[in-house]
Amino acid sequence: MHTKFRLSVYLLFVVQLFIGCSSDPLPEPDVTQPETPAGVPDAYQDKIRTQPYPKADNELYLNPAPLIVPQAMKTGERLQFSLSRTEDFSSPETVVTEPQEWCMYNLHRRLDTGTWFWRFRSTNANGNMPGEWSTTYQFEVKNDAPEFVTPAFNIFLENAPRLHPRLYCFLDDRIEEARSRVTSHQEYKELQSRASQALNTDYTTMADIYSRAEELRQHATYLYQAYHLTQKEIYAEKLRQLLEALVTAPPTDKQLFASNFTATNIAWCLVAAYDLLYDNLSASDRTAAEEQMMRVARYYYKVNCGYQENHLFDNHFWQQNMRILFQVALSLYDKPTCSSEVLPMMEYYYELWTARAPASGFNRDGIWHNGTGYFSANILTLAYMPALFSYIARQDFLQHPWYRNAGRSMVYTCPPNSKTNGFGDNSEKGTEPNRLIAAFADFLACETGDSYAGWYAGECSELVRKDYELRLYRMCTDRNYDTSFPSDAAKMVWYKDAGEVAMHGCPDDREKDLALSFRSSTFGSGSHTTASQNAFNLLYKGVDVYRSTGYYQNFSDAHNLMSYRHTRAHNTLLVNGIGQPYSTEGYGSVMRAMGGQHISYCLGDASHAYKGISNDPMWIDYFKQAGITQTPESGFGATPLTKYRRHILMLHPATVLIYDELEASEAVRWEWLLHSPAKFGIDATKNTLATNNNTKGFVAVTRLFAGHVFALSQTDKFVVPPAVTGAEYSNQWHLTARVDGSSATRFLAVIQVGDTQESVPVVRRDGDTFSVGDWTVEAVLDASKTPKLTVTHRTEPVVFSYGTDNPVLNGASYPRQSAGSSLLYDAMDGTWQVTEMTDRTPVSTRAISR
């Protein structure tokens, strides 16, 4: 039962009041509102770093922060860094580093709060001809910066294993026991079955062996796991045959570096055999394997050093190449013929992980900023690297904030027994999580005891057993963890760094759960994300109600560029038919989010998202290959948009409100978009949109209102159809609400989901007041008036208020602290509280110092 109380002036001073993103209770409202400083730069993330990090206008993601220098600012062969508490670098604790090849420096110790100063200079290879020191940069370390300190590389190196096998040294204390019970393990038959695929392959007769590198990588994994666990020579012999097939006919550079993954796939085959069979290989085989691995290591070290620390997120590198290149270095670092070359590589990748892992280095949320569809491609690395580093460096790398939040994030963005409700390439596929995601939940539950991960793994136990990538870990690990759902789970999670919000009506029960995800991100659009700022997806009972459309068949074909990645494919907005560019510069931001027992709320700002065409050379090339020009007729170009702020509320259990504020510097054509797997039943008189899901047995009804007359239309045709056709790629439905010739307008959408048409209340309007069952909504739709959105309930004292007036909470007027704030009075953790919030300044790492 909720505790209700009458607000008085006294009580106003003791309720919890949140301004911006602070959770500290204030004893008395402050009537002043700080203004946004003039000249604040765009808060997006650079794809390739152009400004040193950190600087005075950067909010630190972690303490200590890495010092990163753009590659273009390194003018010599090496870089030297200096860090101090004083601007003249005269204080006793001033650090001056040894010159190094890469463009980053990790302090490996906690920084005291306060102001710090740093600079850098280029040197020659010997470090004895330094150039001039750079401009001095300063940054502030605040008390609220999460702390994550890693050991220095020399500590890691001192503890590094000297014997083989060593790649899975973190399982050494468990492997003997695992071997003693391997045949009774529930995954033993699958272990044998996978290994049999390799046993039944004749590598000596395999035509064009290097073109089958991915298949060979899998075979090496199957054999490595099977031999390491069973010690049966049949697996060792086959792994030796694979190695010999590769070293007997070494690849040309064209073969070895044919694709981004080919070289590391081959390197894994070599290092797996080299590591596991080291003492039983002939000297010639060891030498040949070392030479081939060094070819790969040299090539990629030259490519990566200076580049990866400055690239926002190089997908293939972080998915696989980073892991395998480090495994090569770990295997060769103490070999006399390789050591001098490999040790700098090993140190570089160790420092790079500290500076930029696990999720770009600028994401603490536990969600995958590059799209849920490609999360699974990163999981083996995400599990392996911290397990290895924690064991060798004797410090828990899973204490990074991203890992501490990952279990909860999987529950809210990739729910068990449900489609994912996330965004990005491939996110639309499947009816349940990828088995690697389930295996990662199991890994986190075992290693950290995270309750969300434990529940998730319990719900997906069959999927966990199907995964092979983490099988060796599971078969060596006691997996006793709590699978009960966390009792304190919230209905809303705000991913502040990644720029997403997840709302759930009942996150632990798919058949009752209405799930909404919202994206407005400083990571912008590019790579495996899409041009979907201020877009949302809505699921019920684990299936789509409204969702981004199109099919991910090819990263860059015409369908992808025009009908999948393009903004027209998402539940957001077009301006004059133009969408957002494929660029980090086409960014958005979640400015506010809060929630309680009855209402979940967020506000996204995509005012900066419609930035013109995609200038990234990669996308320019792909458009050229597809025969598409980036013109307004194709949906690309500049727009006069000046404001696009979208408020989303979930009124639990089954109603969603969307309130859009839209402004432009001149009259434009506004197109409000909604996409569905089912055809819309349109009532043009009442502006009602209805869809049915006969399989799951529910209906969705949306009532749309606006400040101007709008025209409704729908089509089941793509601008460019998918290249591959068939039942799996059926047409989807795309609805547009169009307002012509207006410089400013507003929309209000009332979305209701129910098991039957009769269970969905009729929306009744009286001016700016809308009755929705037990809810009353007041929304000002006239764009010439001050925006206002108020929500109250017939029987509960819950109130949401956005605007300038002072709302009435439980019978008493509440003095709003800031005009234009969002205010929620709701039950939170069993207590009725007031939360008031203004815009949160977007966090990025590219801002130019003021």
From TrEMBL:
Residues 47-202, 217-478 form the Heparinase II N-terminal domain. Gene3D superfamilies: 2.70.98.70, Chondroitin AC/alginate lyase (1.50.10.100), Immunoglobulins (2.60.40.10). Its main location: other. It holds the Pfam family Hepar_II_III_C. GO terms for molecular function: lyase activity. PROSITE patterns: PROKAR_LIPOPROTEIN (PS51257). It is found in: Cell envelope. One of its GO terms (cellular component) is cell envelope. This is DUF4962 domain-containing protein.
